[in-house]
Amino acid sequence: MNTRTGRRLVTRAVVGASALSLVLLAGCSAPGADGSASGQDEDREISTELTSEDVELDFYIETGFPIAQELADEFTEQHPNITFNIRSDQFAVLTENASRVMAGDDAPDLIRLPQLVDPARDGLLLDLDPYFDAYGWDAFPESQLQQMRISDDARGSGSLYGMGIGYSVTGVYWNKAIGAQLGITEAPTTIDELEADMATAAAAGQQPIMQFNDIGGIAFPFQALYNQLADPTDIADWTFQQPGATIDNPEATEAMATIQEWADAGYFPADANSLDYTTMMGRFSGGEGLFMFNGDWESANLAESMGDDVGFFLMPGTEAGAAPVAMGAPNSYTIPAKAEHPDEAAFFLNWLHTDETARSIIVNSSGANPGGPTDLEIPEAANPLTEQTLAAGATVGSDGTLVDFVANATAGIYAGSIRPELQSLIDDRTTPEDAVAAIQAAYEDEVGS
Amino acid sequence: MSSSVVAAPVPSLVDGAGAATRRRRPVGRRRWGQLIWVAPALAVYAFFVLRPLITSVQYSLYEWNGIGVATFVGGANYVEVLTDPEQLGIIANAVVLVLFFTVIPVALGLLAAALMHGLPSGSFTTVSRSVLFIPQVIPLVAAGIVWDWVYSTNGIANQLLSAVGLGGITRPWLADFDTALPAVGLIGSWVQLGLCTLLLLTGIAKIDPSLYEAARLDGASRLQVFRHVTLPGLRREIGVCVTVTMIAALASFDIVYITTQGGPGNQTMVPGVEIYRLAFSEREVGQASAMAVVLMVLVLVAILPVQRLTQRSDQ
């Protein structure tokens, strides 16, 4: 075969393809919506009366969390004219598809959505403020709803775009059986005590902390420390993308430095950087690790697998008796702007915050605080560990501060910056100063664009 | 995804000679009539390959989150991809993977094929061929999960090392900054070795036996036979192996996504995973598209010279 012919053909193909693309490009308009993505009718009258007609509500939820299904079954039991069509996907698939699903003509009536900011600004979410007023949701703790308020330039204020099915709080689980062997019988009340317990465990050949970090799970202990050192308002400002907010500050640097010290002392598993969440749970419940930084959603699982050998406490402060600062977030569900039955979906959301059976389902299925009016009693938990996580959530609600996960600050910050920085930090590949600077740079890059 | 796109120029090169002879014939209406016969295939190709390719190029010129209003930014996304040290590091990782996906499997494949060629066909060769080819049959996701266990702290890799007295170098291979990329690369070597061996073995079988006979009569050693008979005879097969494995290396996604997600740090981040992360996690559709276009160009730049070297006619 003749090489020159071959080359000429390639050249022709390239020229032809470029010309074709140019023609097509010229014919195409810019991708994306022209702002009419919103299907919201500004003048729509809302109703808080449940229809008597037969209605089927479409839900789009996360696989592995049957709570929405359990609530739906109970709702149909109480209101037989409302039935549910529930579709579920893995978390990653759900979050990646959510915007496209909501922008489509067949938008669901209720969707599990962890990241509300971009969809809200794209006009994909229903503004829930009219329901807030009509149902009197001002009787609910505002601190629980705040994370789902979004305005044009920040999160944490503005219109309400979601409600939680359970409001989770995080803290530290500890293995009481290992504790007993080491002479540790009480949960630590200061960071110093926590560190002393870890040193005791390490000296006795026990793994002090079991923590996954394949996708950046050391963000849990990092923020647990950061919360105690910094002014929670500054942390909230950062997660809410308030102008001028920064994580490149002495407190975050100190928290990073402590994490690095813990890593150098062998407090984290040697394979933390490849340890995944499921393996971490398996190892901790199998008796490996004195502490694990995690959330109340695991309380029912751990109670089942470890019985009385496991306890939960909120991250202690630098001094005993300090007001607790914990990270937590609502398991947020939202109504798309294009939902066919928004009134019924909103009725369902109000119902699950106020109905006794529904609240009991939430408590025992998710281990989380059910939210709702502050004067309603929290239903009884089925096991002592869930009682502890619920009590911790209540303590934070009454005496402390709840801040959102720093990993939730922007859509890409966790995978794009926090994960690699924390992985580098515990392997001494970066310094605490460089780590916070890099995270801040990535944050500004994303918020600015 | 990109393999189907980038593979396209290959057949056109091979067919070039035929096209050149046809062009000398008088052309008429018949040539347009012939289009009808390729139209169905062309339509499918245009819709599923050309259209996404063109929209990717279009998206790469915009700043867009996939849903909202897009802003035209010209070449800014390309400047970012080609100047940001982090993004360049990601491309460099893909180039390192070429060593593991291409160089090692082709070299070992040649060795295995040359050794197996001399053997009489029997159960031993059949078994070896099957064992070497099995990785090709296993889905990459499953392979990734299994290798994840192999490399873990208590995995087989470390157990074997401890058993032979090398307990001192055991480590969680995928969690270690220095070993993560080679560890991921070796999975690629394992996957590609079977394909290369099988292709090369078939190639050897096509070499005229009289050449071997003549070489042996002239007193050539095994090494000389390999160098002067086997290697030249396998040029085209080697070309195919190198092309296919290089595309697999540069466009790798599955193995990295399953085993490390690009970590620790960004040690194993490759363009495929980065494109996915940019598009679906950061919702930077424009930048993801720019990265994809750069990746496609990179693949073309890498495989075109290989094609020219190995598909050259035997003059």
How would you summarize this macromolecular structure in one to three sentences?
The complex is a heterodimer of chains A (449) and B (315). Chain A is of the alpha/beta class and 449 residues long.
Supply the CATH superfamily name of chain B: MetI-like
Under CATH, the homologous superfamily of the largest domain in chain A reads: Periplasmic binding protein-like II
Record the strand order, biggest sheet of chain B: 1-2
Q: What count of helical segments of chain B does DSSP give?
A: 16
Radius of gyration of chain B: 23 Å
**CATH class bucket of the largest domain in chain A:** Alpha Beta
Q: How would you describe this protein?
A:
The complex is a heterodimer of chains A (449) and B (315). Chain A is of the alpha/beta class and 449 residues long. Chain A has two domains: 184 residues, D-Maltodextrin-Binding Protein, domain 2 (3-Layer(aba) Sandwich), CATH 3.40.190.10; 205 residues, D-Maltodextrin-Binding Protein, domain 2 (3-Layer(aba) Sandwich), CATH 3.40.190.10. Helices cover 46% and strands 13% of the residues of chain A. Chain A contains 18 helices and ten strands. In chain A, strands 1, 2, 3, 6, 7, 8, 9 and 10 form an eight-stranded mixed sheet that branches. A two-stranded antiparallel ribbon of chain A has the order 4-5. In chain A, helix 2 links the parallel strand 1 and strand 2. In chain A, helix 9 packs across helix 11 and helix 17 packs antiparallel against helix 18. Chain A is globular. The termini of chain A are far apart. Chain B has 315 residues and is mainly α. Chain B has a single domain, classed as MetI-like fold (Orthogonal Bundle), CATH 1.10.3720.10. In chain B, 75% of the residues lie in helices and 1% in strands. Chain B has 16 helices and two strands. A two-stranded antiparallel ribbon of chain B has the order 1-2. The radius of gyration of chain B is 23 Å and the shape is globular. The two termini of chain B are 36 Å apart. The N terminus of chain B is likely disordered. Chains A and B meet through helix 1, helix 3, helix 4 and helix 17 of A and helix 2, helix 3, helix 4, strand 1 and strand 2 of B. Chain B: It is a multi-pass membrane protein. Chain B: It comes from Klenkia taihuensis. Chain B: This is Carbohydrate ABC transporter membrane protein 1, CUT1 family (TC 3.A.1.1.-).
